[in-house]
């Protein structure tokens, strides 16, 4: 009886895989880590920076604003970033036709690049082509509703068009995102004077 028990135990052990074998055969639990797109990383950083900006005070705002503008000016396409910089330089050099040509190509090739639309809206504003500027601002805000720069620009155009109520709304929307924009606060005071006929 004892011999048969030993034989059974020997058969059981020989039939069972070793610990090393069983570990080798068992599928290892893996966690698949998907690489994140640069645009996803930027969106997350923007969320953090805009939340901080809303709560920040005094001189703490400027570095946050600079980082936000840098993120808005970033693209998954290095070519798009270079074109944006070229358009800005042409604008600053007093070459609006050259800047417009670059921006037209840029928004055509990269229609999801909000800052390209914003730069063209700025150029239209400088050229006093208000309706074209407002159309581009609408596109900016479709892509990035928290773009306080575009909202402030919208207020400036509407104020120039003497649409004071709509201008006030745009300014207030800009301040709801970035409460520290002094130019917008000044513009609201100017609106008060205009509306009171002073």
Overview of this structure, please?
This protein is mostly helical and 198 residues long. It contains 11 helices and no strands. The chain has helices spanning 2-15, 19-25, 38-55, 61-72, 78-92, 96-109, 114-126, 130-143, 148-160, 164-177, 182-195. The longest helix has 18 residues, at 38-55. The protein is globular and about 70 Å long. The termini are far apart.
Summarize this structure briefly:
With 198 residues, this protein is mainly alpha-helical.
Task: Please name the defining characteristics of this protein.
single chain, 198 residues, mainly alpha, Serine Threonine Protein Phosphatase 5, Tetratricopeptide repeat, 11 helices, 75% helix
Going by helix content, strand content and strand pairing, the class is mainly alpha
Strand percent estimate: under 5%
Provide the succession of SSEs.
HHHHHHHHHHH
The CATH topology name of the largest domain reads Serine Threonine Protein Phosphatase 5, Tetratricopeptide repeat
Q: Note the overall shape.
A: globular
The top level CATH class name of the largest domain: Mainly Alpha
Mean pLDDT: 85
Radius of gyration: 30 Å
CATH architecture of the largest domain: Alpha Horseshoe
Report the count of strand segments: 0
Separation, N- and C-terminal Cα atoms:
115 Å
Q: Tell me the quaternary state.
A: single chain
User: So how many helices?
Assistant: 11
Provide the low-confidence segments as ranges.
1-24
Considering the protein shown, what is the CATH homologous superfamily of the largest domain?
Tetratricopeptide repeat domain
User: What's the number of domains?
Assistant: 3
Largest sheet: none
């Amino acid at each position: 009886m004892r011999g048969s028990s030993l034989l059974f135990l020997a058969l059981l052990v020989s039939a069972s895989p070793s610990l090393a074998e069983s570990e080798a055969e068992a599928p290892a639990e893996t966690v698949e880590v998907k690489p994140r797109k640069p645009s996803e990383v930027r969106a997350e950083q923007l969320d953090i920076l805009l939340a901080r900006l809303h709560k920040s005070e005094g001189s703490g705002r400027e570095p946050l604003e600079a980082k936000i503008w840098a993120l808005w000016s970033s693209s998954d396409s290095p070519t798009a970033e270079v074109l944006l910089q070229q358009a800005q330089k042409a604008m600053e050099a007093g070459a609006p036709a050259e800047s417009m040509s670059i921006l037209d190509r840029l928004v055509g090739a990269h229609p999801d690049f909000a800052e390209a639309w914003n730069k063209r809206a700025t150029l239209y504003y400088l050229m006093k082509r208000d309706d074209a500027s407002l159309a581009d601002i609408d596109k900016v805000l479709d892509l990035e509703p928290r773009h306080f720069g575009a909202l402030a620009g919208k207020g400036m155009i509407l104020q120039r068009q003497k649409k004071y109520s709509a201008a006030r709304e745009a300014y207030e929307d800009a301040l709801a995102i970035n409460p520290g924009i002094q130019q917008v606060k000044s513009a609201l005071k100017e609106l008060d004077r205009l509306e009171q006929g002073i």
